Amino acid sequence: xxxxxxxxxxxxxxxxxxxxxxxxxxxxxxxxxxxxxxxxxxxxxxxxxxxxxxxxxxxxxxxxxxxxxxxxxxxxxxxxxxxxxxxxxxxxxxxxxxxxxxxxxxxxxxxxxxxxxxxxxxxxxxxxxxxxxxxxxxxxxxxxxxxxxxxxxxxxxxxxxxxxxxxxxxxxxxxxxxxxxxxxxxxxxxxxxxxxxxxxxxxxxxxxxxxxxxxxxxxxxxxxxxxxxxxxxxxxxxxxxxxxxxxxxxxxxxxxxxxxxxxxxxxxxxxxxxxxxxxxxxxxxxxxxxxxxxxxxxxxxxxxxxxxxx
Length: 310
Known about the structure:
This protein is of the alpha/beta class. It has a single domain, classed as 3-Layer(aba) Sandwich (Aminopeptidase). The chain is built from ten helices and ten strands. The strands form two sheets. An eight-stranded mixed β-sheet has the order 1-2-4-3-5-10-6-9, sandwiched between helices. A hairpin with a 2-residue loop joins strand 7 and strand 8. Helix 4 (about 90-105) packs across helix 10 (about 285-305) and helix 9 (about 215-225) crosses helix 10.
């Protein structure tokens, strides 16, 4: 459905230049603080797990250090499992779901995997509740060589530092009502294209990789999450956010082609989760629990499939 809505920045049909990007950045504001809400939770894990700084954002290096949490007893014989959250900083349960998994489940799963969790890839976006970074770039479309997005480039450097390929990558996201009220209209304005209104699905779903869909793995994630929250149904076209539903609660994207975080590794098993926090059927904590359940479902499947031992 086409919309008559006009975004307040830029000229319709014309791509933004530097002036429009600056205008967009100047209308953002700090709404919550990374150093108060996220960093203390990360540091609290340092006694039981390894907390490492893998970079910092040049916008304010002291305000925006980038941390990852690693298994305490790294074992070269174990496969690597990567969990990423907050690639889109405004997607709150991605950040706090990753941290809850680290606090409650990481010790158990470290028996099978060398686990790495990057809980808040985009802390500026977390603070301003934004999808983009200050340059009006989407980190989750910027995972490619010589990335202009610092958030993406820093995570790619972290992945490159691993001594082997990643076996499992679970990237935690949300689909929110503001995707349609703010972020997709802003994207259309930035790129000088027409905004065509879409539908936000009510429920959880996952995004697999078109080139490596791993349908059984996706099904295991969906089954685990269904014990915590409801799964998004397909719309009347058999789609979710404009993509074909290939199995219950699952769509696929070409991860590498689109520069998505889901393509940052060459993993065998990968999924991008999508929680719907604006549903009247869920609480914030249930959204965090859904992210934890997604990780558990995926890892349990891989343990069984690959016959991993402690």
